[in-house]
Amino acid sequence: MSSIIKPRVLKGFRDFLPENEIERKSVIKKLENIFENFGFVPIDTPALEYTEVLLGKGGGETDKQVYNFQDSGKRDVALRFDLTVPFARYISQHLDELYLPFKRYHIAKVWRGENTQRGRYREFTQCDFDIVGVDSPSSDFEIMLMMQSSLFKLGVNDVTIRFSHRGIFNRMLETLCLKDKTVEVLRVVDKLGKIGEVKVVELLEELTTTENALKILEFIKPGKNFRDTLDKMIFLSGGESDDTKRLEEIYSYIIDNKIEKSFILDPSITRGLDYYTGLVYETFLNELPEIGSVCSGGRYNNLASLYTKTELPGVGASIGLDRLLAGLEVLGKKSELKSLTQVLILVLDDKIIGHYHKIATELRKNGINVEVFPIKKKIQQQFKYADNKTIPYLIFCGEDEVASNTINLKDLNTKDNYEGISISKAIDIILE
Amino acid sequence: MSSIIKPRVLKGFRDFLPENEIERKSVIKKLENIFENFGFVPIDTPALEYTEVLLGKGGGETDKQVYNFQDSGKRDVALRFDLTVPFARYISQHLDELYLPFKRYHIAKVWRGENTQRGRYREFTQCDFDIVGVDSPSSDFEIMLMMQSSLFKLGVNDVTIRFSHRGIFNRMLETLCLKDKTVEVLRVVDKLGKIGEVKVVELLEELTTTENALKILEFIKPGKNFRDTLDKMIFLSGGESDDTKRLEEIYSYIIDNKIEKSFILDPSITRGLDYYTGLVYETFLNELPEIGSVCSGGRYNNLASLYTKTELPGVGASIGLDRLLAGLEVLGKKSELKSLTQVLILVLDDKIIGHYHKIATELRKNGINVEVFPIKKKIQQQFKYADNKTIPYLIFCGEDEVASNTINLKDLNTKDNYEGISISKAIDIILE
């Protein structure tokens, strides 16, 4: 009748095969667990919003990365491109129903029409967590602790969280009378890791004097240790300030909690052109620094100024799930499970299928994931199915076993056979 | 500078406040657990696909409910409106990487520009589970068992799963020479619950003779019990067939598993104009039948004929999460938790904030969800925060307690105070 349509997905979009989706779900569950461990609550917002709400007035035409269109009711709508803007809108809209300080997490897909040649996806998952409505060193520190705990939970212990303070950076530029060139300087500083010190100075010299360029380089180079780096930052930013005191305070918490191994004060961290005003952080896998930061964030002055006159300072971070998953895979920390099934009940006899399902229910009541092969087929094909799904145990049973209320169990890993055992014995073996 | 943009969401779209999102996540986790218990594997597909892939060639202009548009690369794209079509595309595309029979589940959002006046949402969540690549009574039964188990897992034991067989219904129409009016008859039969028997016969009389109309009514009325209903279906469809044998087989499994209380053979269940060809099911909450079926499905001949010449018979069902959640709320089965936090550590002294975080880490290591209040504030405000988040325990601690390495614990439910206890004692009390 109709011709076949070629099954395919859009460029930059992906299907997830079971083994990948099992891994994604497992990582997401662990992150949710950490976020809840820290008292963060989940929220959700629509994928589609008014373009004006997401991009501001008149922003619709300018941002080509955003998927926007007119819906059938002639509304200008857009798919969310991050979780921060919807959160700003959300908290402004629901301030009366919420309470401050508000600690939320949000794990969801976002869409951007990025250039896919750089290995970027147009649909990807972000995991954001923020503390809004309070400006305290304790909150700044809590986010850092969560970044570290999240990675530990995923089995990645060898991480470095590099942090700095945008306020001190800005003050340094002020002392050099370069405040009006902040954006340009940030753009150059951001490239330090890629192009190296010499090239950075060259580029800075296009913006200012050689003396200033060298001072900026001096500022962004980490010192021997926290104290050394901070002293240099204090000196080059014109003396102590609330911002430098905050860094000291946070460092004292780090010491109290004996986690200094994971944290480095690194003044080259600025989070580029972002809207951060205070602490900023990036997280690197020490065995895989080249993939870049897997979790970044910082403090901002006013989250929701687009939507409300209520001042909402906050601090937060975002885990790039796709980059992190790619990293875990390279580090050999990806599970290769094709399913979570523990037992396959083979169908030897059509006439006792009801009985097979009964056995399955017994096992499930004990928390065991079990399936009944859906139809009588050659035994090799049923074995193949167990293999495809990496199922470790098989249960065999015919009419004799029904009569004696027993089963046969095979452990495919050890090749052990347990013949004529009771269901409860089988449960013990599987759960062991 | 810029004027305030009114924070708002599109009609038919929703924000989820923490208490609602906690509930949604908890229900989804339980469903995932059941699906994995039955050996189903998760998959995911893109939210956005080629319009042609989702709607077939030339389908783009006709379906106003679908959100479709041109992306910046001039591709015709659309947001998925269900999880079945993407699954058909997915399995055709990845057949070489998968294996049959394939049992997958998929829980995800879908979008339809529905009329919101009927209380429908334009963004909603579906939970689909299907067994593809096999046509067996065991699979038909397994889906029924999963429907029941899913609701049991959510604490809803009082459910009725009504099932029938579209093949037998079609054969009945054939015996009445009404095959070419199948669509019209289905449309009328579907209204039985709403308009009653008299009105159904009236409408059927517009399509055929009074005798035929009465025969159809006779067919769709359930009998006294399974046997009685089936006998009538056999008689009115012109005798026994593979389809009636399948119903008998499935019923024998139901008996074997002693779950007949939840299942009723109801020949008025046809799943309307859907593409089902075999078993069909709908699930009703007995205390709340008026909200309609919360989980429906059935068997289809060929899932993916649009994309592949490989025949893929299957059976599956879909839980309408939003309707189910609304039902759970009415039944008083909705949790009212505003957070999952178990302990709030109050900030009595600014100078020991690092210590507070250390205590929190100790508790978290024992699986306890705990937060440190983010800043020193009046004690009443910190209490209020615990109240807002329904946190049951408070920990107080000043410099004296730091010196003696103890804490004070307050149980807000019982009003019990535990003063000067060790952290490990506190952990025991909280976990108890």
Automatic annotation (TrEMBL), chains A, B:
Catalytic activity: tRNA(His) + L-histidine + ATP = L-histidyl-tRNA(His) + AMP + diphosphate + H(+)
GO-annotated molecular function: ATP binding; histidine-tRNA ligase activity
UniProt keyword S-adenosyl-L-methionine present: no
InterPro entries: aa-tRNA-synth_II, aa-tRNA-synth_II/BPL/LPL, Anticodon-bd, Anticodon-bd_dom_sf, His-tRNA-ligase, HisRS-like_core, HisRS/HisZ, HisRS_anticodon
Residues engaged in binding L-histidine: 82-84, 112, 126, 130, 271, 275-276
Pfam families the UniProt entry points to: HGTP_anticodon, tRNA-synt_His
Biological process, per Gene Ontology: histidyl-tRNA aminoacylation
One CC-aspect GO term: cytoplasm
Taxonomy, superkingdom: Bacteria
CDD domains per UniProt: HisRS-like_core (cd00773), HisRS_anticodon (cd00859)
UniProt EC number: 6.1.1.21
Keywords for the protein's UniProt record, in alphabetical order: Aminoacyl-tRNA synthetase, ATP-binding, Cytoplasm, Ligase, Nucleotide-binding, Protein biosynthesis
Subcellular location: Cytoplasm
Keyword Nucleotidyltransferase in annotation: no
Domain Aminoacyl-transfer RNA synthetases class-II family profile: 24-328
NCBIfam families found in the cross-reference section: hisS (TIGR00442)
Complex and partners: Homodimer.
Family: Belongs to the class-II aminoacyl-tRNA synthetase family.
Entry protein name: Histidine--tRNA ligase
Taxonomic lineage: Bacteria, Pseudomonadati, Spirochaetota, Spirochaetia, Spirochaetales
